[in-house]
Amino acid sequence: MKTELIYELVATAMQELITEPWTIAELNIRYLASSHEAECDGTYLDASGEAQVLSTDFPDEVLEALPFLFVNRTNDGNPPTNSVQMTVSAQGRFAVDYEWDQEIEDEDEHFSKGGTVKEWLKIRQEKYGYTPE
């Protein structure tokens, strides 16, 4: 699936999931290369400017397309990435920002080798200097 079509699918799905007046929404997508899956979370600002949790209960078509944002990018000759933030306005304009996040890669590798949550939390504290809330 072409990248532009994926952007349109995601932006439309985000707009459809927000059921109240809003101004801007951000979706954070993380790519787990070991399983060729993507996971996401997001927020949006309602009409009064308050941050709200964005539902990520996207249709299967959208969820299945997300990993291809990263695959397509690499296939097009760009450096590998494993994180993208998509910002969508209520008017339908959007922007995307790709990054490489070593913590995502380390976590993916740890769990793909059968590591436990307890082990990961220790590694995360030692390597990245913080603990879960």
Automatic annotation (TrEMBL):
The protein, known as: Uncharacterized protein
Organism for this UniProt entry: Spirosoma fluviale
